[in-house]
Design brief:
Number of helices of chain B: 3
Order of helices and strands of chain B: HHH
Helix content of chain A: over 70%
Shape of chain A: globular
Distance between the termini of chain A: 59 Å
Number of helices of chain A: 23
Oligomer: heterodimer
Largest sheet of chain A: none
Structural class of chain A: mainly alpha
Radius of gyration of chain A: 22 Å
Strand content of chain B: under 5%
Largest sheet of chain B: none
Radius of gyration of chain B: 20 Å
Order of helices and strands of chain A: HHHHHHHHHHHHHHHHHHHHHHH
Largest interface: A-B, 37 and 32 residues
Number of strands of chain B: 0
Structural class of chain B: mainly alpha
Strand content of chain A: under 5%
């Protein structure tokens, strides 16, 4: 056993211990399990929100994009800042509506707002369809990190099965409290590790940031700016806009909102989080440093750039610590995704089909579903190959379709009927699936359009279809009135 | 009126509207190529702007709480 593997196993055991200890002193009703009894203060909500930002996608994918694509990777820094500035105003509205109402999920919010359990079922299905590929991506990252760090001694399969089993145990026992506690460990480790290597590697190999970027610009001219076609400024701006729009549409974010004790928590977080996400900058620095130090990683292998440069530069102990931090970026968001998926399937699908079920039964169903969702994700992870990125992008496009429905119900009563919102979502989702299967881009759909239009993110087409159908149906149906809390 | 809340639109304007003009390598700022420095600058500015709005909002909320009509105040 290498020292790296020893460190990773140690941290792994610590995470499970923390996850299990988080339950102490709390009777696990569905409300405790899903939204922590709505008693979390600024720090825990901050950790849950931030926990969702630093996933294996940012850790491996952020450096991989900087390594393989260069400047287009910067979009990852932009959409968060915009989404946080909007959150200052948006999240308190959602939180206030949940006060005095038994809301534990995103689907609950829409079902009550529009007075339509059917809409709740639709939103729940969209949510789970988007969450599973996201979870698959975390497991895939976990497998890569463990097998790299152990020098191939532990295979990806073994790592994925073991990691998922651990996740299931602490999620079933502690729910969202487990996620919050392990988030604390994760964020401290990521902060130290990423800033540490993001400062050290450019200094060590190039003598400084400017020298590093100049060397890259000489070796790969144009890598530090956006190209004039393809991933151009138009692509960049439209992608940032679309991802900022989809940011709070992920079901696990809604659950995060409901955990808060009061609305000031969100305002404080909107101040801190933009600054906090600058950690991603150091992930970019590592990816850039790797360009000339470990050249030759092509395609999906670009995601290995961070681990490879670390492996080359440090001893096995350091690799273990960095690998352990990477594993936490997979396990913590993974646990939150599992809690959310279990909650929405039990509360918004099972409950609607079986109205006589008691609270106790629904809570039991939510937890029983966790191993099943995990199992499905493991099987998808082991079977899926390069289609993973496609699945994640599809997940993002899927949740973004909920945006019009949210905007139109922020007032006291929704402005349009539940039927129109359902029609819009269904039309938008069908468009997403069609565009993904056909791997269409604006350029293939409108070959005669100017380059700027061609480079626009294709997600806007589905959102456009959604909006048109929504307003057409809204014209012939009446909106509902929300019952007082 | 809380007109200062419109300040929150600045990050979006700087990060989205500014990109086509900031898309260049020179000049380097703090060791970073200009495009990256532009984005990092706006991310930091976002935190500063939101902190300002938070302070102004907190001050207004406190003032609003202090001017509750006398009828609503508990009598000593």
């Amino acid at each position: 056993m290498t020292p790296a593997l020893g460190v990773i196993i140690g941290v792994f055991v610590l995470v499970i211990g923390l996850g299990l200890a988080a339950r102490r002193g709390h009777e696990m009703s569905l409300e405790q399990w899903s939204v922590g009894g709505r008693g979390f203060g600024t720090v825990f909500v901050f950790l849950l929100m931030a926990g969702e930002i630093y996933t294996t996608f940012t850790f491996l994918g952020g450096s991989g994009w900087a390594y393989g694509k260069g400047a287009p990777a910067f979009y990852i820094l932009c959409y968060g800042a915009i989404a946080y500035s909007v959150s200052y105003f948006l999240l308190p509205i959602i939180w206030r509506f949940a006060q005095g109402r038994p809301l534990v999920s995103q689907a609950d919010f829409f079902a009550v707002k529009y007075d339509s359990p059917t809409l709740g079922v639709v939103v729940a299905i969209v949510g789970v369809a988007a969450l599973v590929p996201y979870l698959v991506l975390q497991l895939k990252g976990l497998g890569i990190i463990v097998s790299e760090a152990s020098g191939g001694v532990v295979t990806q399969q073994v790592a994925i099965w073991t990691g998922s089993a651990a996740l299931v145990v602490y999620v079933v026992v502690s729910g969202v409290r487990g996620s919050a506690w392990t988030s604390a460990l994760k964020d401290v480790m990521i902060l130290v590790v990423v800033v540490g290597i993001g400062v050290y590697l450019p200094m060590h190999y190039y003598g400084g940031y400017r020298a590093m970027f100049e060397a890259i610009e000489t070796a790969k001219p144009g890598a530090l700016t956006l190209p004039s076609s393809g991933m151009s400024s138009a692509w960049f701006v439209s992608t940032v806009l679309l991802t900022a729009t989809g940011f709070y549409m992920w079901p696990q974010f809604f659950a995060g909102v409901f955990t808060a004790r009061n609305e000031n928590v969100f305002r404080k977080n909107a101040v801190i989080l933009p600054l906090y996400q600058l950690i991603i900058l150091f992930v970019f620095f590592v990816g850039f440093a790797a360009i000339l130090v470990v050249p030759g990683l092509k395609g999906a292998d670009a995601d290995l750039s961070l681990l490879r440069i670390v492996e080359r530069s440090f001893g096995s102990w350091t690799l273990g610590i960095i690998g352990a931090a990477g594993i936490l970026t997979a396990l913590v968001p993974g646990s939150m995704l599992l809690v959310t998926a279990g909650t929405i399937l039990a509360k918004n699908v099972y409950r609607v089909i079986t109205p006589t079920a008691s609270d106790r039964t629904v809570s039991l169903v939510a937890r029983s579903l966790v191993p099943l969702i995990a199992l499905a994700s493991v099987l998808l992870t082991l079977r899926g190959g390069t289609t993973l990125v496609v699945m994640l992008l599809m997940g993002y496009s899927l949740v973004t379709q909920l945006f019009p429905a949210l905007i139109l119900c922020l007032g006291e009563n929704p402005r349009v009927s539940a039927a129109s919102v359902i029609a819009g979502i269904v039309a938008g989702e069908l468009t997403v699936v069609f565009l993904t299967v056909a791997s269409a881009t604006v350029a293939t759909l409108l070959p005669a359009a100017p380059q700027m239009i061609k480079d626009l993110n294709v997600g806007f087409i589905a959102l456009g279809v959604n909006a048109v159908v929504l307003f057409a149906v809204a014209l012939v149906t009446r909106p509902a009135t929300v019952a007082a809390a | 009126m809380r007109r200062y809340r419109w300040l929150a639109a600045l990050p979006a304007i700087g990060l989205l509207g500014g990109i086509p003009f900031a898309n260049r390598v020179h000049p380097y700022i703090a060791g970073m190529p200009f495009l990256l420095a532009w984005i990092v600058g706006w991310v930091i500015a976002t935190s500063i702007i939101m902190a300002l709005i938070y302070r102004l909002d907190s001050a207004r909320d406190a003032a609003a709480a202090a001017t509750v009509p006398p009828v609503d105040r508990p009598t000593a």
